[in-house]
Amino acid sequence: MAGALGNEDCGKLYMKRRRLLQFIVGLTLIGGTTAYAAAYRQVEIVAPEAEQTVHDNLGRMRVEVTVAPSLARGHQLKLALDGEPLDREWRSSSIWLEGIDRGEHTLRAFVIDGSGKVVATSAPVTFYMWQASRLFPTRR
User: Fold this and answer.
1) Which residues make beta-bridge pairs with 12?
2) C-beta pairs of 50-56 under 8 Å, 24+ apart in sequence
3) What's the domain range around 98?
4) In total, how many domains does the chain have?
5) pLDDT tens by residue, 90-138
6) Which residue among 17, 25, 45, 63 is the one 20 to 30 A from 7 at the CA level?
7) What per-residue confidence (pLDDT) applies to 132?
8) CA separation for the pair 34, 27 (Å, rounded)
9) Over the stretch 38-88, which tens digit does the pLDDT of each residue have?
């Protein structure tokens, strides 16, 4: 029978269509333009690590973000701490934050284009800020 597909061919066609649909849906979920969203295959917070405890009495910490490929011209990183976007953007993937209160926090990184539109995002990372207490000065 001419034109009929065997089981193996049907399976390959199904997988091709499924990958294409996941790609299109992924672009929609990111909210980015097709050209930019497809370009960033990795946006990942590598420091602090998930579930890491950061020890700093002043609430300072270094954030490292891996972006692949590197940021396009006009694109910047923006961070959100506990769901609230921070007030500035960065071109560097190594970022210092200050004034973080003790306790559990969630951090997320976004790549934004020149108009401020989010074109890629990282998975959230939960970390803990530890600060000494006057009530328990010897506790570590």
Assistant:
1) none
2) 50/125, 50/126, 50/127, 51/126, 51/127, 51/128, 52/127, 52/128, 53/127, 53/128, 53/129, 53/130, 54/100, 54/127, 54/128, 54/129, 54/130, 55/130, 55/131, 56/129, 56/130, 56/131
3) 32-130
4) 2
5) 999 999 999 999 999 999 999 999 999 999 999 999 999 998 877 766 6
6) 25
7) 83
8) 7
9) 589 999 999 999 999 999 999 999 999 999 999 999 999 999 999 999 999
Residues 25 and 65 in one domain: no
pTM of the shown model: 0.69
The verdict on 50 and 108 lying in the same domain is: yes
The DSSP line for the chain is -TTPPPHHHHHHHHHHHHHHHHHHHHHHHHT--HHHHHH--EEEEEESPTTPEEE-TT--EEEEEEEESPPPTT-EEEEEETTEEEEEEESSSEEEE--PPSEEEEEEEEEE-TTS-EEEEPPPEEEEEE---SSSTT--
